[in-house]
């Protein structure tokens, strides 16, 4: 698997509702979400599962950077825009939802050669430190995969905040990237012709808990 999250650190099982109607009848300059920190409300948020995705990229035989997608993530974010470095995020990624363009590979990824989802159905990222600067941040945390925990650093970017016009929930969005070595987590199948480095890109939306 290779580089583009949490990498971080979720579409197989992603279901993006098809939405039309007055709620979305806005011009491009009137989008509900904007890159404006003043629109972020302090508090506890939960992952908007339907609009959060994890993309992984691996180099295959030196021919292609092959991409897979994982959906169905859950988790929480605690955030105070006045003190961004105190934020805390945890994301759980259901590995059984992984999907690629090969049905055979989809099944193979579930086995002990890769994710071994019978024993380890979920990967988890939990932040330990956040260093924010403007609309970006470096998020240090622990990624647990196949029962192995390793430190990773996500390069994150604030992508928007506002009120979702469909459910009226205060929402914030972020994207983040990282690169891991799959061998660090006990996944060595196919080395070296399938790259050890795996790129992760995470696009995540969070809705404020009532």
Walk me through what this model shows:
The chain has 210 residues and is mainly beta. It has one domain: Lipocalin, CATH 2.40.128. Helices cover 3% and strands 45% of the residues. It is built from one helix and ten strands; from the N terminus they run E-E-E-E-E-H-E-E-E-E-E. The chain has one helix spanning 103-108, and strands spanning 43-47, 53-60, 64-70, 74-79, 88-94, 122-133, 136-145, 148-163, 170-181, 197-208. Strands 1-4-5-6-7-8-9-10 form an eight-stranded antiparallel barrel. Strands 2-3 form a two-stranded antiparallel ribbon. Strand 4 (74-79) and strand 5 form a beta hairpin. The longest helix is centred in the middle third of the chain and has 6 residues, at 103-108. It is elongated. It starts with 42 loop residues before the first strand and ends with a strand. Mean pLDDT is 89; it is low at 1-26.
Short description:
This protein is mainly β and 210 residues long.
Q: Between the first and last Cα atoms, what is the distance in angstroms?
A: 39 Å
Order of helices and strands: EEEEEHEEEEE
Coarse morphology: elongated
Give me the CATH fold name. Answer: Lipocalin
Number of strand elements: 10
Total number of helical segments?
1
The unreliable regions are 1-26
Q: CATH superfamily, called what? A: Lipid/polyisoprenoid-binding, YceI-like
The CATH architecture can be named as: Beta Barrel
Structural class assignment? mainly beta
Strand order of the largest sheet: 1-4-5-6-7-8-9-10
As a percent range, the share of helical residues equals under 10%
